[in-house]
Amino acid sequence: MSNVQDESALLDDATRDLDGVEAALQRLDAGIYGRCEACGVAIEPRDLQDDPLVHLCSDHR
User: Fold this and answer.
1) Helix, strand, coil in percent for the chain, rounding step 5
2) Close Cβ partners of 35 (under 8 Å, ≥ 6 residues apart)
3) The whole model's pTM is what?
4) 15, exposed or middle or buried, with CB in 10 Å at 0-12, 13-18, 19+?
5) 33 pLDDT exceeds 80?
6) Is the dihedral of CA 18, 9, 49, 44 positive or negative?
7) How confident is the model at residue 43 (pLDDT cuts 50, 70, 90)?
8) Residue 26: helix, strand or coil by DSSP?
């Protein structure tokens, strides 16, 4: 892979991460952080600890 492709991949990853953080902050502001977006059930605390951006319960991932 060339440097341009490497940089492009890194930028894509960073953009995806930033989008995830912004979405998590919106859920936090809305009071629904930590709840599954598909069914509303509480996401397991260990899952949130492993990935604070997770937005689906284990049944919907």
Assistant:
1) 55, 5, 40
2) 27, 41, 42, 43
3) 0.81
4) exposed
5) yes
6) positive
7) very high
8) helix
**Tally of CB atoms within 10 A around 43:** 20
Cβ burial, residue 12 (10 Å; 0-12/13-18/19+): exposed
Query: Could you report the per-residue pLDDT of 10-21, keeping only the tens digit for each?
Result: 999 999 999 999
Closest CA to 48 of 18, 15, 14, 20: 20
What is the rounded CA–CA span in Å between residue 7 and residue 26?
28
CA distances from 3 to 11, 12, 13, 14 (A): 12, 14, 15, 16
* C-alpha closest to that of 53 among 9, 37, 41, 39: 37
